[in-house]
Amino acid sequence: MNIDTLILIFASTVAAATPLILAALGVLVNERAGVLNLGVEGMMLVGAVTAFGVGVTSGSLFLGYVAAMSAGAAMALLFGLLTLTLQTNQVATGLALALFGVGLSAFVGQPFVGLPIERVPAVPIPLLADIPVLGPALFRYDLLVYLSIALYAAVSWFLYRSAAGLRLRAIGEAPGVAHSLGYPVVRIRYLAVMFGGATSGLAGAYLSTALTPMWVEGMSAGRGWIVLALVVFATWRPLRVLLGAYLFGGVTVLQLHAQGLGVDVPSEFLSMLPYLATIVVLVLICRNPKTILLNQPASLGRSFHPDG
Fold first, then answer.
1. CA triplet 75, 21, 142: central angle to 5 degrees?
2. Contact (Cβ atoms closer than 8 angstroms) between residue 201 and residue 68
3. pLDDT over threshold 60, residue 199
4. Under a CB-based contact definition with an 8 Å cutoff, are residues 281 and 229 in contact?
5. Domain that holds residue 41
6. What predicted TM-score, i.e. pTM, was given to this entire model?
């Protein structure tokens, strides 16, 4: 295995991790607010087909990304109306949203199957991209890769360095107490849920315009469920979300490159690796109840009504 192959694998890992980072950071924020939305898979697929459709018809990937974020936020708003206003069960509603998104994206995406779209271009960072070995490995990605790192920094600052982030975490821990102190619990939860929907839509857009620039029904391939597991794996901490996403991205890329590297393993087993890794990690974490509860918002998944 030469250095060019290693750089290719590393770059592929970063690209594979990017949609996981984008979606997981949004999920982290809305779970920190105490809301459990299991509809990530559906929101990612709706974002993917929206970005692809708008990008193909308008010729503008920027408009496609804006539309994808709007579509994801609209899906999340629907979830919020049902769970935060009408007080439906968050788990059941999230599962319904995931199934709805899968079906809606398949229906809307029928005219776009087989159509080409221009891949999101790489944006090499001047001077740094020319450094031997490190340049191709670290500084020659598209804007969404850089945005995922910036989003991590922004979410970390918001949660732990801002007054608004402190209020959001307080609502996730004790919404009743936060309400008694005058915090608009429901409004903040709405904003958190819509932020998670927007980032999930953006993650889906990355799938259909950058990672694999095409529209295929069900192209998220379970990544939405991996995102939900990733947030638990990270114990609701942004840095662990980032590192965990690269870990899962590496496993995904490994199964794509293994046979090319001469590893004699059935392709079906290699395809199972990302999901097998997810299960193994969750089992290891759940062995210790104190570990799984570390940093978990106390009110996660529980309904709250100001008059309740």
1. 100
2. yes
3. yes
4. yes
5. 3-115+134-292
6. 0.91
